[in-house]
Structures are given as structure tokens and as C-alpha cells.
Write a structure and sequence with these properties.
The complex is a heterodimer. Chain A is 63% helix and 0% strand. By secondary structure, chain A is an all-alpha fold. Chain A has one domain: Up-down Bundle (Ferritin), CATH 1.20.1260.10. The longest helix of chain A has 29 residues. The relative contact order of chain A is 0.15. Chain B is flat and about 55 Å long. The termini of chain B are far apart. Classes of the chains: A mainly alpha, B alpha+beta. At the A-B interface, helix 2 and helix 6 of A face helix 1 of B.
Amino acid sequence: MTSIRVAETPLVLYILRRADDALVLGHRLSEWCGRAPMMEEEMALANMGLDLIGQARALYTYAGEVEAQGHDEDALAYRRDERGYKNLLLVEQGNGDFARTMLRQFLYAAYADPYWRAMTTSRDATLAAIAAKAEKEMAYHLRHSAEWMIRLGDGTAESRARLERALATLWPFTGELFEIDTLDREVIDDGIGVDPDSVRDTWTATVADILARATLTMPADGYMQKGGRNGRHSEHLGHLLTELQYLQRTIPGATW
Amino acid sequence: MPEANIPLWEVFIRSRNGLSHKHAGSLHAPDATLALQAARDLYTRRGEGVSIWVVPSNAITASDPAEKGMMFEPTASKVYRHPTFYEIPDEVGHM
């Protein structure tokens, strides 16, 4: 089935960037189904994935309304190509082991929780309402993943080594959390969007505190990867979308 | 993660309209904090609860099923303990 073209006005793009973060991370968590190290965490991972997919649905629906080209949530999720996706590179990185998945969740939630909390005062009533729900969900993701950071970091030699490897792998993707361009700036200056830079101090304090309690050293800010916000992705997103979009691309409009 | 090494916890949920916490089930978790989070994820997914207790299963002292004769049968013949022999005036209403 052919891909759609999205009219990327600043507000549509702003909403899509956040929606893609939620969908891609939610899909990554869904990949744990049947594979988690214990049943309790299987449920926790699936719950967090469903929270994120719920956020994505609300954001896609709203992006489609703002765009006013007749694109619903399914069209936006299933019929955009890799370059049309504007998510952070962090969220598309592979699950790896449990330590890497939990670290990815922690780094994202430490950002998304204060981000959505700030969004609750947006001039845009729909975004403020989506934020009010998302903020509570991300607060829980942050709490759960942070508890695992402490236990894995300050746990056995094995768990610590795995978390240290994950930290070295994922840290270069954290700079992108705070990246904005002139299109984002327009939406922020309109009183609709949140400037990610306004939650940077909160994020840094949270990550520093939890890593200290996990007895890990916070990496120095070296070279940071970017490109996701403009559709330039790592090799992982294409594979993820192949699986995510397979059914709708093969049997267009299939419902169940 | 071998579950044999992870302690078992009993979960009690107080529902929206219930007065007391009721036993909901059990789960494995390495400590109390994660047990509480797992209980939230496992047993309150459909909006069941407003409060959760978790208790280490090994903190519970249980009666021995083999002693149920001694423990529970002597009460079977004491029907007078059921308050069914009293005339309750209509004005009292439902008790």
C-alpha cells in the first residue's frame, strides 16, 4: 500500500515527533511479550508499552485533526515510511538485555515525566489533556525503571556489568532529548509546546541521583547522536517498522 | 531469573467500595518496593484497587490442614452460636 504524505506544519510536526516517540518505545516494549525474565516483569513491561501506545493513539488522532487531510491514527502509524518517522533515536534502539531495556525506559521517562507535567499548562487544551494522563503514566515508568537501576547497578557483578555496558551504549542518544529546531521553537513560542531545555535540569538531577544510588558513574557528555527528529534514523527503525506495518501494508484497511 | 531465589509475597487489595483489604493472590519480587509495584501491575490492571498491602509469605503462620478436625469440627455442634433463635422486632430492620 502506498505511503501517505503528511503536511508537516510546525504544530503537526511537533505532535508527530512526540507521538512517534511513544509508538516506537511502546512497540519496543511489546517485543518483550513472552520473553521477560520473570512473569511479574513481563506484565510490567507490557503495561508500560500499553501506556505508551495509548499516548501515541491520542497524539496521532490529534495530529490528524490538526493536519486536516483525512489521516487518522492508523494512517499516521502504518502508512509513513522510515524517513517520515520523527522519533528520538534513543527509543528505537534495540531491547538488548533487561538492563538495557530498563535503562532506555529510565532515560526516556526521566525526560517525559517532567515534559508532560509542563505540557499540562499548554495553551492547547487537547495537548494539556493528553499530558495530564501521560504525566501520571510516565511518573510510574520513572519510578519502576529507577528502582531497577538501583538494584541492577548495586546488585551482582553480572547485573552491574550489564547496566554499565548499556549506559555506554545508550548515553550518546541522550543529547537528542533536548534538541529543538526552528519549527519546534515556533510552537513553543506560541505557548503550545514545551521547551525541552526547561526540563533538562530536572532530567540531569534525576539521572545523577539514581545513578549515584546505583553506585554508577554518570558518563561525561561527549559526542551526541542526532537526526531522528528529522527522519534520519539508525538502522534499527526500518526493521521495527517492517514488523509494525506489515499487516496494513499487505492487507490495506484490515480490521479485527 | 530463577524464581526459587526470589521471595514470595502475598497481595491484599482494598477495592473502591470495600472496607477491608482482601487477599488477591501472590507474586515473586526481590524486595517490598518491587513487590508493591508488581502487585500494582498484576492485580490492579482493571481499576480494582485504591490501596495495596504486600506481606512476605513466610511471615504468615498458617493452620495445619491435617488438624482441621481438632481446629474446626468442635464448632459444628454449637448451633446456638448462630443468632437465629431470636425474635427481632420489625423496627430494628436489617441487621
